[in-house]
Amino acid sequence: MSMNNRGSGIWLYAERLPHVSEQHLVTLGEGRVPLVRSWRIGEKLGLPNLYFKLESLNPTGSYKDRISALALSLAREQGKTACIGTTSGNAGASVAAYAARAGLPYHVYVQENIIQSKLEQILVHHAHVYKVEGMGFNSQVGQQVFENVRTKAAANNWEAVITAFAYAPQAMEAVKTISFEIQEELGTPDAVFVPVGGGGLLAGIHSGFSDMLVSGQASRLPKIAACQSSGCANLVRGWEQGLNKPVPGDSTSLISGIQVPNPPDADLVFSALRESGGFGTALQDEATWHWQELLAVEEGIFCEPAGAIGLAGAVQALQEGRISGNDTVVVIISGAGYKDVHRTKVMTEHAHVPIISANEM
Ligand SMILES: *Cc1c(COP(=O)(O)O)cnc(C)c1O
């Protein structure tokens, strides 16, 4: 193995990704995260073949690292002098780390109510951060920010890193490696439950399985299930109403990472659901929090709320008969628990931690 780790993590699939030459490759060890079988929750639900893909174990704690590694590698390959983007937190934390690694400045626009722990994770890498009024709940502002990032990037020869196929189609190819890994370890599952904000994660996972169907590495597609907060269920409502476009509306969801009132990859989400025989499902934030806690208590998996919405979606789909108890189901645990310290505080505030002397033990 070379110093650059070509041949490990997402780079095991380098020949299926956009070309990056050896000297431009930027990596921190992203990808190749564990796929673990449920030990308790699946049994209790009557869904024994339930698996969790632990994207929370990537270097900065979310699957965004797969994209950032490829984005910064491509930026160096193409001689870009900085990167610029927008984020609800995780993409920013990830790009900030990889930009620091690559030695490039990073300008990033965030929502005003960004979770402090995510903001700090961006700032430790000395990224240039700007808070934008209204971003994250007003759909017009979101659209305008995306367009401004694109314009500024083009004008300055900067790399635009918005983690959506609509804005960074080459870097987003890295998301497919999630599916390549699942296929290698498990074969094609019956269903994959994916949290959805902008839709890029879901579109990339579907695209990875589609590629393998075309190349003959897989003989069928898994059903892809789009899991959104009912406070920001623009795609799920559009799907249920048969519109094939999002139902617009502001976001009232309290779940960081999936508060995207104007999902840039909406079209790709709808075609993924159609092609795979999948569906959309909207979850109350309370349900997501509940399953976040159970993942921690019953499985030892500490994820942020967005990382647990897929499990909430799988439970609801089983109750509604959209999947069967015999199905092999993969839930994408997209982000790590330490990212949202608000939630950690709520989850632990009733814990009693007595102060004792050593001889009272
Ligand atoms: C970015 C993110 C999502 C949503 O991904 P999209 O591609 O925007 O749909 C979900 N969970 C976590 C933890 C994320 O960081």
Short account of what is shown:
By secondary structure, the protein is of the alpha/beta class. Helices cover 40% and strands 13% of the residues.
Give the tags:
361 residues; alpha/beta; Rossmann fold; 2 domains; 6-stranded mixed sheet; 4-stranded parallel sheet; 40% helix; pyridoxal phosphate; threonine deaminase activity; lyase
Structure description:
The chain is α/β, with parallel strands linked by helices and 361 residues long. It has 2 domains: 9-61 and 171-346, 3-Layer(aba) Sandwich (Rossmann fold), CATH 3.40.50; 64-168, Rossmann fold (3-Layer(aba) Sandwich), CATH 3.40.50.1100. The chain is 40% helix and 13% strand. The protein has 13 helices and 10 strands. The strands form 2 sheets. A 6-stranded mixed β-sheet has the order 1-2-10-7-8-9, sandwiched between helices. α4 links the parallel β4 and β5. Bound molecules: pyridoxal-5'-phosphate. Residues 26-335 form the Tryptophan synthase beta chain-like PALP domain. InterPro entries: Ser/Thr_Dehydratase (IPR050147), TrpB-like_PALP (IPR001926), TrpB-like_PALP_sf (IPR036052). Its cofactor is pyridoxal 5'-phosphate. GO terms for molecular function: L-serine ammonia-lyase activity; threonine deaminase activity. Keywords: Lyase, Pyridoxal phosphate.
Helices and strands in order:
Elements: E1 35-37, H1 41-45, E2 50-54, H2 64-77, E3 83-87, H3 90-102, E4 106-111, H4 116-123, E5 128-132, H5 139-156, E6 159-160, H6 169-172, H7 176-186, E7 191-195, H8 200-215, E8 223-229, H9 234-240, H10 266-276, E9 279-283, H11 285-299, H12 305-319, E10 329-333, H13 341-348
Parallel strand pairs: 2-10, 3-4, 3-6, 4-5, 7-8, 7-10, 8-9
Antiparallel strand pairs: 1-2
The structure holds pyridoxal-5'-phosphate (PLP).
Pyridoxal-5'-phosphate (PLP) is lined by residues 62, 64, 90, 163, 195-201, 257-258, 260, 304, 306-307, 334-335.
